[in-house]
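During the reporting period the student researcher (J.K.) took over the structure-prediction task from the postdoctoral fellow and processed the backlog of single-chain submissions. One of the processed entries is reproduced below for the supervisory committee.
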Amino acid sequence: MATGASFTYVLIPADGDLPFKEFAAVAVECGDTLKELLKDHFAGGRLSNLDELRAQYGDTVDQRKDMLQQVADRGSVEMMPLVRSSKTTLPLPDTATFLYYDEMGALKDRPDNLRAFELAKQCGLDLEHPLPGDVFVGRVCCDPGPISVSIGMHELDSSVPWIRQAPVENAAWKDVLSDLKSAEKTRAPQDRTAAEEQADADGKGWRWSQSETEVEVTVVIPEGTTKNTMVVAIGRLSLRVALRSDPAKTLVELRLYAPVVPDDSVWTLGQDASGPHVQVTLAKEEEEKTWPVIEAKGR
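J.K. obtained the following structure tokens:
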């Protein structure tokens, strides 16, 4: 795999008595090198704080505990944009600046990172809670790219131009999202989304949705189905859900629109007003890329 230039990034320790620290690495072309690099830093640690998850999801949390621990042992990195890429971002156009933190940090009962919380507030983000544990600050050039580029400790002072401009950039982003939500609420019933049309047309008893980082597929399953009677196969460009009792008959078999990261993808059983279901959460390989459809027909 080709490599690019070296870049720097910054550690904000959870321990407020420890100083910020700057590191250097070599960027891999066409990708966010830092997200992969930090998996080793966040790998390990026992999941000891599951009460909040249990309150929200019930017994399914304990059913998934071993799977969650495996994800924690491998290291799982979550990203939060301080500033999204645009033609007006500083210090360079088309660059995005992120906080990188342990996705399992809260479940490991890591301490709040108050300095990262303050940086997020300076950038105009309204977080309900501080991020858990050590937090890193990195930057990605998106055009051309994506590729990791440098950010240094000297750029984390509240007086630097990119932080002073960040609240304006984030307010503009919120306005765009608000306009999209308003348009969605007012759209005519016949103006259905591609996902709705596809699910209805196929009649397969499944639906999908997406966020910036994940695609979620919910598949209706028979009453009494357990985890041990399910077959869920997640590939980089494929998803297959079936019952062990009849593996030849699939509930869902998709050739995905874009690649996902199987090791960071999970599935669980649940129930809602539509009945029992299996919920598959696919981690997008290209985060912030919007999928117009879930299935790559004709490939």
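The committee noted the following: The first strand starts at residue 3 and ends at 12.
J.K. will present the remaining backlog at the next meeting.
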